[in-house]
Amino acid sequence: MSVNPRGAAGEARRGRGRAAFAALGATPFLLLFAAAACTEEPPTRKSAKSGELSFEWRFDGALCESHPEIQHVRVRIAGERGPIALPNGGLFACADGEGPGRLASLGLLEPGAYRWSAVAEDRQQRALFAAASAVTIDGDVALSIELMPQVAAGALELFWRFWRGVGGQPVGCEGAMALPGKALSGIKLSFSPTLAGEEVPLLPCQGELGEGGALTLTPRTRFARVEALVEREASEERQARSEAWYGAVFHPVLSSNTTRQVSLLLRPIASPVSLRLELADAEGARLSCAEAAARYGLSRVQLVLTRRWGEALELRQEGTCQRFEEGATEPWVPASERFDERAERWSATWTLGAAALGPGGNTLALGAQEVLVVAGLEQVLTAKLQLGEAQ
Description:
This protein is mainly beta. It has helices at about 5-25, 25-40, 290-295, 320-325, and strands spanning about 50-60, 70-80, 80-85, 90, 105-110, 110-120, 125-135, 140-150, 155-160, 185-190, 210-215, 225-230, 240-250, 260-270, 270-280, 285, 300-305, 315-320, 330-335, 340, 345-355, 365-375, 380-385.
């Protein structure tokens, strides 16, 4: 039998090692485990990053342009090590930066948790709007924040009278009938911007304050429009509608816990007009309706007034040629596009379109022209059509 001396020697060494390990017990194992634990690298993870913090702010839903009373926005921020000094003491102009809500940058911050506050102040450093919250910096952060009102509401008392011509004495509600035998149905107020909870109901022309009414509004500077309405019932020609016959605009500025009184002179902002039609042949010679019917087969006419300003509005009438030859009344045409200080009247530009129709509804001729409507004056608006080849 052959013997492997290296194998015997190795086995002898292993035996001595086991004996030594047994004599020491578990101590070497624990020491090795502890040493391994001390030298092992922790799991790798992405490190937090510094970043720029910026604000895009609104004020109860409105932008800086709606709040000229805001002098600046005061921003404060504190991290884990305490407050952080900001440029210019943390004062930012409302319109600093870019974007719809003005993106104001607070600069580069170290990674971590922060608390911030933002207060919109007036020239007397009174807090008008404010917001506060927390933010964690791990790279750039852009916050859209909503600053809410911090002042109590103010009261607005409006008093109105109605203009009755140059040199005429203003009159009250009873003397301002826009239509024969038709009294004004109410006073409508609209604000820009309008805040939630500030929708104003239709006020009676004569109320507890006489010819006036009281409102409670959040202090701010706004554009306001006042309109005196007439409710017209439905007829065969048109649906029921609210018609604004008198109006005024103003900019109310309210202070906290105060009452401001405003007297308004409401002027006409609409007129009734008479729509007429003039016809001509291909050479430009005037035609009567009877001649146009005999030579061109004219059956009916459409006239359409289209408003070129404000919300879209069309006033459409259709009938026989003879009806427009005599003049058809359009009882309400708004005209509050611009105000003439010298004439003390509102006016507006409309487009008057005309269509001549044949017996089958086919179009014989089309025309359109600009017309000026002056509020408070009865006017005649004439549409002109030139017919083509005779039938």
